[in-house]
Amino acid sequence: MFLCSSPSDATLNAIIPLHILLQVILKIFVSSYLLSCLYIIYLIPSFRNEEDYSFRGNRKRRSDFVEYFDPQEVEQRHLTCADEEIKILDIPERYQTRKIHIQTADNLELEDESKWIFSNLFASPTVSNQDYVFDHLIDADLLDSKARTFISKIYSILDFIRNRHYDLLFIACYRRELIAPELSPNDLYWILKYDEKWHQLRSKRNSILKLAQRLQSHLYESIRKQPDAMLNDELRIIQDEDILRVENSNSFDDLSDYSALMFLYYGQEMVEMRNLSVEIHISDSDTHGNCKKFASRRNYFYLCKKYGLNSLACQFGLTPEQFGENLRESYQVHEPDQSPVEPEEASIEYLKLNTPFNTIEAILSGARHIVALQISHEPQIRAYFRTLFRKRARVFTIPTNKGKLHINDWHYCARYKYLRGKPVTDFKNDEFLLLLQAEEQELIQLYITLDESSSLDINFSNDQLEPTRNMQTYFNEIKHLYLRDDYSAVVTKWNVQRTKALFLAVHKYLYPVITQEMRYLLKTEAEKHVICQSMEKLGQWVDQVPYFSSLDRTCEDSSRRDLIFSSEHLNSTLIACSIFPEHDIPGYLVALDKDGNVNSYAKLNYLKNNLRKGDSHQPDFQLFKKLIITYEPTIIILSATIRNIYHIRDEVQVIINNLNEGSNTSPHSLVEIMDPNLANVSSQCMNLTSEFPDYPIQLRHAISMGRRAQDSLTEFASLATVPQNLLYLPLHNLQSRISQEDLCDALQFQLCKTVSNVGVDINSCLKSEHKSCLLSFVPGLGPRKASALLKRLQQDGSILENRSQLITICEIGPTVFLNCAAFIKIDVKDIRAKGTDSYIEDLDGSRVHPETYDWAKKMAVDALEYDDTTEDFDSTEAVQRILQNSEKLRELDLDAFASQLEKENFGDKRATLYDIRDELEGGCFRDRRKPFQGLNKQDVFEILFDNPLATHTQKIFVKGKLVTCKVVNIERRKPTQEQSTKISPERNEITGKWACPFCKKSDFSEFSLVWIHCDEGSCPGEAIGIRTILENGLYGFISIHNISSSTVVNVENHVQIGMTITCRILSVNSQKFSLELSCKSSDLQDVENRFVNLKDKFYDYKKEKDDTECEKSSSKNDLNHYIKRIIVHPKFKNLSYEESLPLLENLLVGDCLIRPSSRGYNRLTLSLKIDDNIYQHIDIVEKDKTHTYSIGKSLWINNEEYEDLDEILAMYVNRISNFLKELRTHKCFRPPSTNELSTLETLLTQEKRINPSRIPYFISPSVNFPGKFILAYTPKLKALTDYISLNPQGLKFRNKIFDSLSQMLKWFKDHYVISLCNREVSTIRPSQKFPTYPKNSSIDERTFYSSNLSTQGKQYTAKGSLGRPNPIANSEHYQSVRTNSNYQLRTQKRPFKYKSSIHPFK
């Protein structure tokens, strides 16, 4: 516990240690050396041109900067030559760093691109159901009317971006009339992303076009050299129409189809064009990541063509192009040309040739293969099936064996475990990404197809396919378009071949390709949804006004002025506190000034989860008090990291209230709870680590929390100085499943959008390095240009007094100035107060762009009705006055002004003029973000306990989910005074004891003791429920009605404190941080399906039921299955249970045999012989296995660990054998029998008749429970039983461990009476008023019990049959009770059972 202070603190001065001073000097020296090296290597041209010779030979070696420093650090600090070029070039930095650089374009290309972007981004609906589409998707009915408007706006935007290099946010803010109202700033971002795709499309199209043209020339050259080849059917010439189709392709899918077609037909020709391989460039992969390779000579298609089967394929009678037209028109436009001979006869001539096809079926199979590939590669057919899949494709899912084990009712994939034919159009938002995640985790198998049987169960290992006639698939719907409608024998046989070829083309080649495309398309749409949601989440975090600005707003609101202290007491100091749940990790307090600098900090050692109410005297709270007194903070921030955060907040608030009692000058500090997600990331990143290298991570966590309260935008921008840091923020539970580069770009754009809305004070960036990160997110700038701009100002030693100095002093180009000038604000009042000789422009502190200053001044002059023709006219004075009194701006006719500007060829500037008026009316750069708000209890609960973003799954606690918790307390309600006066104790007729009706305590010997128990306040009250705690610290409550399905009389009979139980969630109370639970068997089993998680409407319940029944039947069949093991030990045998029975029969009692277990490869079974035909099977768990068949390095039986099998034999088996021998050699031991209980009862009855005064007992092995022994005894008429368990530590009897049998029997003889009493109390309700008799007792027996009540006293004083006096019957208390007349009177009215502890035996 300590308190530290920075040197700037006047109240807590400290001396800087010498070693810290030396570290600072060393860092300055290293930085100077680094800058000197950069200057020498890169800025002196003569040095760069010199030749540096090494000592080994005369080989030249260039002095490379990377050789001296870490290349990654050089790149991260933007010190490379490329970074220098970016700083100098007058183009927005983010346009230069884009993967595909911005390129200028002519009007024709811009028109084509705008139409393409409109068609793909705004006019094409998504396949799946996406929310983000509804913002900009154009209705089909309005498509024609709005298409021109959209295309013209997109054209203007592309012209601004590509030719004028306008930043997106400059366009959104200062060219708003060209995009609003149809487009939003986010739409501009996606237009820029699609511009990249357009360049990729053009590049790929040009590559394929170039390849097609060179192939065409190559083929014509081949024909010229070999004129006879023109008559060959195998030769397919590239026509001009083919090249034209490639030129007109406007989608990646079409280009992929043409590329695949060329690789199919001209693969061998491409191999022959080796001399052109350098000039021919095809992208390494297509849109979907499928690598293209040249055809191999071993290719089956090539072999079929090589041996002339292409001519046989032509006899199928229909070309792929003709079949494509038939599909497109949905009727048979082209009928197949029929060959006059049968296919078998046409194949005979190929048998005469020396070919690998030596049978007719092989020849026909090769021809079918050629036809199938040609059909599947035809672009028309692929386009048709692609469109068909987008409308009719369905999704099927089947769980794997791992999925059946892990996907329970509350798994994120439970709704989609068994999907049967869900249309792809019914998938919403990110659902498909969840399925892909489950598939990658090997939980499910995912299929996309047109129909259920089309590709799920078809094996293409050979081409001998016989399509099933009753298979209702889409293939059956289209096959008539490929067949000839005739019934002759020749036509029938050819139709069979055509059917097989078409079946092969559709199912083996077309479906896999289109399915892969559909998976990619659905994945892309879901990823875009995740990106949009992540941008929205980050936007909500940064779209929050700093806390002190929120106070200014509150003070301006007269209705809430009484809630906030007066402005003269407003202090911008802030205290932040970070506490962590781990007991060995301390917390920290830190006091920050208005610029985020550390004033002081303190270490907290005692503030943990065990905090109780009223603990404000703790040392940690004294530190709170000391800092509050010293700095008088306006707000205190607490991190939502521990469960007791609200208790801490209340205690801190008590401290503040106590300090402010009787004081009118001290501000009333507010205490707020904040989300720690940003601090969790930034405390470990470079931004805070480099600023505070000597601070622990917990202290940096507190600093980040405080700075976020001061300005969340600045803190997020500081984190984004390394863009990849944004990816660590929990924005979406599927953010790790998408492209991290695309997500990072989107998040940076979101920050830029917020920064452009707020503006950046460049002079404050010069003062505070922490705030300088904002400048890199100004439109037009970036980290390189922003750092260069600040360095130029620092070198000049001046501040920016007006925006024109961005050009004169900072030397930025006109394009970058146009993009960034309006977003850089200057504090005009502060500059005037300091005094300057430079011209001060009041509009430099507003959002008004410098290009529209004249319009803003004219609006001010016209509003004030100044005469601008006089010599002493000053428009600057008019602006100053209008800023103080802006009401007159409402009198201006801005529409007329806009019409005048439009006549002067300025275009439509209505939106700009209204924006200028709003800026002048509302105040310069008035923050438009939402007010600061702390977290409510719902938010804190989700962060602490139910955060799906932290676990990348769905919510953890939902109604109906099963959880495991530990019982910590039994909640009771104390009786009121009125209830205590009306108490009605109840007497147990068996024990004679009285019970409290509230707490159910039943050991009161007299009626009056119950009254005393209640009057003295000793009664804890009636049990109302159970308090539990989960593993994560969340409390749960089980009401008395939800403990058991039956009536609960005594809670202790059902649960005990410390017991672990399984419960079902009934409700979640986020306000109290608790769960309402139930452990009733009816709720746990959920027979009525009240808690079943909702399934998808296409869920296949029948398939799930069939799989469950199949698993049950297979588990029964696999009970005897085991894995043979390689274990060398005399007691180990590789045998199943049935095989081991002959060996077990020959073993001695107490001996054992070890064998493999049927429960898995990591278990063994130890079979211990207890008696003849009685074997106890003990499970041995193996851990740290090096191989499946070897034995584990550690062996576990229950919770005991053993090193090897020898230790198990010595420490486990031998000890049990000794106890077993002791039991078997006892005089009361009896051998086992099949009807063990009835046999022992007969023996006991015989012994009881011989000597009624004694209690006989016998010990016998249990047949039903191997490893246990039955202890049977007869205290009265009925035989009772207990069980003795064999344990290496001793004999376990009634939850006690005894070292020997004699010790156990001695304890049993002394305490068996208490056992009898417990048995009766547990089975008889205390409120029972009617007489009870032994089961199946006769009338005479019941009369016997009543008639012998008068002789009870004699029986009480008798000695027990085991030879010891009864301590209860001879006690003084019993003698007084026995002589009580009231007691005699009550006992004569009720029967008496022999099991009472007062009357143990007859």
Automatic annotation (TrEMBL):
<keyword id="KW-0812">Transmembrane</keyword>
<dbReference type="Pfam" id="PF17674">
    <property type="entry name" value="HHH_9"/>
</dbReference>
<dbReference type="InterPro" id="IPR023319">
    <property type="entry name" value="Tex-like_HTH_dom_sf"/>
</dbReference>
<keyword id="KW-1133">Transmembrane helix</keyword>
<dbReference type="GO" id="GO:0003677">
    <property type="term" value="F:DNA binding"/>
</dbReference>
<dbReference type="Pfam" id="PF14635">
    <property type="entry name" value="HHH_7"/>
</dbReference>
<dbReference type="InterPro" id="IPR003029">
    <property type="entry name" value="S1_domain"/>
</dbReference>
<keyword id="KW-0472">Membrane</keyword>
<dbReference type="InterPro" id="IPR041692">
    <property type="entry name" value="HHH_9"/>
</dbReference>
<dbReference type="Pfam" id="PF14633">
    <property type="entry name" value="SH2_2"/>
</dbReference>
<dbReference type="Pfam" id="PF14641">
    <property type="entry name" value="HTH_44"/>
</dbReference>
<comment type="similarity">
    <text>Belongs to the SPT6 family.</text>
</comment>
<dbReference type="InterPro" id="IPR028088">
    <property type="entry name" value="Spt6_HTH_DNA-bd_dom"/>
</dbReference>
<dbReference type="GO" id="GO:0031491">
    <property type="term" value="F:nucleosome binding"/>
</dbReference>
<dbReference type="InterPro" id="IPR028231">
    <property type="entry name" value="Spt6_YqgF"/>
</dbReference>
<dbReference type="InterPro" id="IPR042066">
    <property type="entry name" value="Spt6_death-like"/>
</dbReference>
<feature type="transmembrane region" description="Helical">
    <location>
        <begin position="20"/>
        <end position="44"/>
    </location>
</feature>
<dbReference type="GO" id="GO:0140673">
    <property type="term" value="P:transcription elongation-coupled chromatin remodeling"/>
</dbReference>
<dbReference type="Pfam" id="PF22706">
    <property type="entry name" value="Tex_central_region"/>
</dbReference>
<dbReference type="GO" id="GO:0034728">
    <property type="term" value="P:nucleosome organization"/>
</dbReference>
<dbReference type="InterPro" id="IPR055179">
    <property type="entry name" value="Tex-like_central_region"/>
</dbReference>
<dbReference type="GO" id="GO:0042393">
    <property type="term" value="F:histone binding"/>
</dbReference>
<dbReference type="Pfam" id="PF00575">
    <property type="entry name" value="S1"/>
</dbReference>
<dbReference type="InterPro" id="IPR012340">
    <property type="entry name" value="NA-bd_OB-fold"/>
</dbReference>
<dbReference type="InterPro" id="IPR000980">
    <property type="entry name" value="SH2"/>
</dbReference>
<dbReference type="InterPro" id="IPR023323">
    <property type="entry name" value="Tex-like_dom_sf"/>
</dbReference>
<comment type="function">
    <text>Histone H3-H4 chaperone that plays a role in maintenance of chromatin structure during RNA polymerase II transcription elongation.</text>
</comment>
<dbReference type="InterPro" id="IPR012337">
    <property type="entry name" value="RNaseH-like_sf"/>
</dbReference>
<dbReference type="Pfam" id="PF14639">
    <property type="entry name" value="YqgF"/>
</dbReference>
<feature type="domain" description="SH2">
    <location>
        <begin position="1121"/>
        <end position="1227"/>
    </location>
</feature>
<dbReference type="InterPro" id="IPR037027">
    <property type="entry name" value="YqgF/RNaseH-like_dom_sf"/>
</dbReference>
<dbReference type="InterPro" id="IPR032706">
    <property type="entry name" value="Spt6_HHH"/>
</dbReference>
<protein>
    <recommendedName>
        <fullName>Transcription elongation factor spt6</fullName>
    </recommendedName>
</protein>
<keyword id="KW-0727">SH2 domain</keyword>
<dbReference type="InterPro" id="IPR035420">
    <property type="entry name" value="Spt6_SH2"/>
</dbReference>
<dbReference type="InterPro" id="IPR017072">
    <property type="entry name" value="TF_Spt6"/>
</dbReference>
<keyword id="KW-0539">Nucleus</keyword>
<dbReference type="InterPro" id="IPR036860">
    <property type="entry name" value="SH2_dom_sf"/>
</dbReference>
<dbReference type="InterPro" id="IPR035018">
    <property type="entry name" value="Spt6_SH2_C"/>
</dbReference>
<dbReference type="InterPro" id="IPR010994">
    <property type="entry name" value="RuvA_2-like"/>
</dbReference>
<dbReference type="GO" id="GO:0008023">
    <property type="term" value="C:transcription elongation factor complex"/>
</dbReference>
<keyword id="KW-0804">Transcription</keyword>
